[in-house]
Amino acid sequence: MDFVTLPEAGRFRLKNLRTPACYLGQPGTGFAPLSLTVADGRLADGPADATLDMKGAIVLPCGVDMHTHLDKGHIWPRAANPDGSFMGALTTVAGDRAANWSADDVRRRMEFSLKCAFAHGTRAVRTHLDSIAPQDDISWPLFDEVRADWRGRIELQAAALVAADNVTEDGAYAHTADLVKRFDGVLGAVTYPIPDIARRVETVLKLASARGLPVDFHVDETLDPTSATLRVIAETVLKTGFDAPVVVGHCCSLSTQDPAEADHTLDLVAEAGIAVVSLPMCNLYLQDRQPGRTPRYRGITLVHEMAARGIPVSFASDNTRDPFYAYGDMDLVEVLREATRIGHLDHSRGDWAFSVNRTPADVCGFAPCGKLGEPADFILFNARSWTEFFARPQSDRVVVRGGRAIDRTLPAHAELDDLMEGK
């Protein structure tokens, strides 16, 4: 049950709110007092017809989830990871994709995830789409339809996901790049150590540049310290002068590399203007998993060192109930809570709250949120401090879209049972 009831219409004012000081341009790790006025579904100033005393409740902007896999989501009941390993995830997803990923199957699972994200307070999502042929010709037109259906509720972007071995200047990858351009997407690839990785990265940038596309890479999703393709990406961006936005995700191997090598790579990333998205829950699930052995490493990348260099750092959901991550619900409050615990974001800088809303919105180019005249999209929490905020799931949060509290009822997992039958 919601902890507060908002007026259905008219101009109303919420007083005695508090928000992280960073949102008001103030220093420190604490909160600052705030009042909000809503009129005609937008943030406003001036008098109000009604005023509610929020008694110190926290308010945050609606979330932006910039690294997800809506096309993989919720296949776990029919395609469970056999051993929790990265290779187990790869092979299981490949088999399920070939057998089951029709347009109807992908659409229904995408819609389910988006219902969850919307109910939790997310206003924008970037999803990666497996784009190995023939799946690209199925998923990209379908994504365009889903994006149109969700316009006004969740703003959507898509990024192509193709293994670096399949990146070529012509043939199937060039066809995928044309689809990405046609559907206003983001070009991408998964990078890992192969002999000609620098050439493959340069090919991605070349095809993206020719089509005016931004780029989003999966990078070094391993704890092997010899996997250093992040440095290759940064060097190639600098060498080519590629000037469209570049995002890299995961970058797990930085956490096991020699500190001097990692520092050098991060200096290059900062110089190249590359943004990073960390996926702490999925990486914690997959990395350093060995039978009968307690994991030693967390898998999270060097987010503190990145932030200290001015590199934009975001956190995101990544996979949801699929072989890469058996859990999750597209809830960015959970993502921020777990990132704080896994990455020790507490006792640190005061602007980590940006990492699940303002920073990813800026990086991806989603519409801004939170200024006067913009839609009144925000989340109210029955918590007055970070320790209260992170102590509970905040299941009684109030999600406000266009000035009105939405119905936060989550879809039942049973809605997808027929897709899993006989699998």
From TrEMBL:
Keywords: Hydrolase, Metal-binding. Gene3D superfamilies: Metal-dependent hydrolases, Urease, subunit C, domain 1. PANTHER family: CYTOSINE DEAMINASE. SUPFAM superfamilies: Metallo-dependent hydrolases (SSF51556). Its EC number is 3.5.4.1. GO terms for molecular function: cytosine deaminase activity; isoguanine deaminase activity; metal ion binding. GO terms for biological process: cytosine catabolic process. It holds the Pfam family Amidohydro_3. Residues 181-401 form the Amidohydrolase domain. It comes from Halovulum dunhuangense. It comes from the Bacteria. This is Cytosine deaminase.
